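User: I'm preparing a small set of examples for a lab meeting where we compare how different chains pack in three dimensions. I only have the primary sequence for this one, and I'd like the structure in token form so I can line it up with the others. Please keep the answer compact; I'll paste it straight into my notes.
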Amino acid sequence: MTPLPDVLPIKPFTRPARGEVTLPGSKSITNRALLLAALCDGPVTLTGALFSEDTEIMAESLRRLGFTVKEDQPGKTISVEGRGGQIPNEKAELFVGNAGTAARFLTALCAAAPRGVYKLDGVPQMRKRPMKGLIDALRRLGAEIRCLEEEGFFPLEIYPHGLKELSQAKIDSSESSQLLSALLMVAPLSHSGVFIELSSEVRRPFVRMTTKIMEDFGILIMREYKPKELISIRSGNYRLGKKHYSIEPDASAASYFLTLPLITSGNLNLPGLHGKEVGLQGDIRFIDVLCMIGEKIDEGKGYVAVEFSPNEKRRGLNENFREFSDTFLTLAAISPLLEGTTTITGIAHTRKQETDRVAGAARELKKLGQDVVEEEDSLTLTPNLNELRKRAAEGMIEIETYNDHRFAMSFAILGCHDLLGNGRPWLAIKNPACCAKTFPNFFDVLEQVWKNSHQ
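Assistant: Understood. Below is the structure token output for the 455-residue chain.
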């Protein structure tokens, strides 16, 4: 992987994009599968796994808990020696950085243990990310959890006593679906099962992903909807008969390269990416957004291909991103090139992710000379291409990433547009290395596409 400078100028495409893009494995699936593999009875090998900061945090935390986790990065495999629902070490200190999946999943895992003392902490931003709904639910199930600073947030100290028998836990997962996913995955460790009552609306795609992976690992899940929504999970052992589990390519990471031909014209093929009908990931719905803008999409068997002609218009649109919000920045970043106003709604919860993504997007787009109306749950973006060209002609525009990988990748795609018509870089990304969180070689892949397209 090529070392990255502190500020990286983005090289515009002067020819249409073409070729294939190999995507990394899904972070969301990799971290869920790591947890469930650790709970299996015996060894499990994950194939096509993602190797990134977030998945390494999860793997290292499992090692600290006493599990054997072996990684083969060139082969894209991770082998986990499952311990049949037991945590080998009764004491551990876990540092989760700013990995939300690891933070929520490991909190639930430690709270489900029969005994022990576990301490969990993260970076300052992780200490601001929502945990309360999960903490409250785990306490109802019998775990003793102490919030060492502010109630409902990291750092935590957990004194588990196993999950209560025939328990019912109410959970508020409105701030993050990961809170519910974490509770779901440890519920089978209860001796008699758990009934989970949803006390708030939740973003469904990631929960469906979780339950589907649990079913792949042998756990049956039942739902009732009257008079209130209940999810019933019986006690049971996670099992994977074939001893290996395949990880899909990451649909959130795909959004950047699915969008690239829209910016440069041309066509790209993303082999291995699953379309809407067969994939586990809700973020693949972003391809519908690209179709509405004007891109042609081919969802084939084992691939997704995209194409855009320079003769077509790029249409602005109004779209609710609540169910696939990790991709909203991809649309926001390219909004200066669209015709007409774009309105993005359903994104209030992203203010509590790696950074306040709504405020950050508004700030960076205003830097580009765009008309932005920011509200709690929405952004309304009116393009001003003339002002963007004027500012770009005056000198390099540097995009602040807030140590958030999605800012770096989204705005890098915008920078691929030959705005000045001479191939000269006009946009640069600060701290491009922050992509290591989910897509460590993103800029290498982007450079390879540029080379393929200019041969």
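A couple of notes for your slides: The chain has a mean pLDDT of 95. Residues 7 and 430 are 4 Å apart (CA to CA).

User: Perfect, thanks.
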